[in-house]
Amino acid sequence: MTAVGVTLVTDAPTVAPVETEAAVGDLAAGEMVVFALPIEVTENAAAGTRQLAYRVAYTDDDGDRRRSDRLTTDVRVAPARDAVVVKPASPAVTAGDSGVVELTVTNNRGVTITDVQAKAFADDPLSIDDDQAFVASLAPGESATIQFTVSAAGGASEKAYRMSVDFLYTLPDGDSELSDPVNVGVRVEQPPPQQLPDWLVPVLVGFVILIAAALLLRRRLGGRTTPAPREDVPPAAGDGGVDTPGPLSVEDGGVDEDPESAAAEVDAPKEPDWFVGDGDAAGDDGGSTDRDEGGGGDGSGGGGASAGR
Predict the structure, then answer these.
(1) What are the extents of the domains in the chain?
(2) Are 116 and 167 in contact (CB under 8 A)?
(3) What pTM was computed for the model?
(4) Cβ distance 182 to 165 under 8 Å?
(5) Chain centroid to CA 186: how far?
(6) 184 SS3 class
(7) Residues 55-64: contacts with CB under 8 Å, at least 24 apart
(8) Which domain of life is it from (predicted)?
């Protein structure tokens, strides 16, 4: 048969054929041909099996145009799925700081979508500084990476917080469609403990070494003491730089250099007031009387005795 055509007929309220006719062409005896007709399923349709009816029109070998009886086929309606699938690529930020959150977006529809506009939303303690992204087109099953700049408050706890993303895109027929919000978990992490700068570590090490060296030097110097001289052995002259004291002069303290003269001055009794003159004076007065001469002699002798002591 030739000029084979198929006409789709259905009465299901949730299934609407986009096109109802398909031209198959000529078919030899026992030959099979696969064809497709696009069908739209409404949002209210439940997942399950639907029955579609169709008729086949053709021309037989005699050239007569014929039409088949009503035929049926089963079509399975899959559960609803998101038009866009989003997976987080780097969903972590640090508390008190901002970071870039990367998302992988995949076209989950059976047609190419274009002018894909993404907009992100978040609640406290998250805030979005750069909340929009754009993808020119996505073929069925194709993926792309989009980025948002997200900040976390300094007092945020270390856990995951929700961020939602809406997608507005254009279908092949020119109609625009807005996706349902896609929720993504963004994890907030606590900042790492502060570390010393690299240049400060060697400075501190050097400072500790200097302190240790100073303490060690002080300890060694503190252990070296000069021994005290022994009391029972007087140091000799020239030993250890100790000088032996010599005789004192008159200028040093009124003491005569001669020890005997010093003893004489100390031991001689004080002369009485009636004593007059010395040995020379007695000689001058020797011509007076014998008593005076003798007295003078006694006085001289006494003076000599005193000197002898």
Answers:
(1) 2-77, 84-189
(2) yes
(3) 0.48
(4) yes
(5) 23
(6) strand
(7) 55/6, 55/7, 55/9, 56/4, 56/5, 56/6, 56/7, 57/4, 57/5, 57/6, 57/7, 58/1, 58/2, 58/3, 58/4, 58/5, 58/27, 59/1, 59/2, 59/3, 60/1, 61/1
(8) Archaea
List the alpha helices (DSSP H) in the chain: 200-222, 250-253, 259-267, 279-284, 290-308
Cβ-based burial of 300 (10 A; exposed 0-12, middle 13-18, buried ≥19)? middle
Phi, psi of 288 (to 5 degrees): -75, -75
Please state the CATH superfamily assignment of the domain spanning residues 84-189 in this structure: Immunoglobulins (2.60.40.10)
Read off the amino acid at residue 307.
Answer: A
CA distance 86 to 267: 129
**Alpha carbon distance 179, 170 (integer Å):** 11
Token pair of 36 as six digits? 């497709």
Alpha carbon distance 176, 173 (integer Å): 9
pLDDT digits (tens, 9 = 90+) for 100-155: 999 999 999 888 999 999 999 999 999 999 899 999 999 999 999 999 999 999 88
Structure tokens at 69: 């009886």
Residue type, 186: V
With H, G, I as helix, E, B as strand and everything else as coil, classify residue 202: helix
Of 36-40, 140-144, 206-210, 263-267, the least confident? 263-267
Closest among 85, 45, 62, 53 to 1, alpha carbons compared: 62
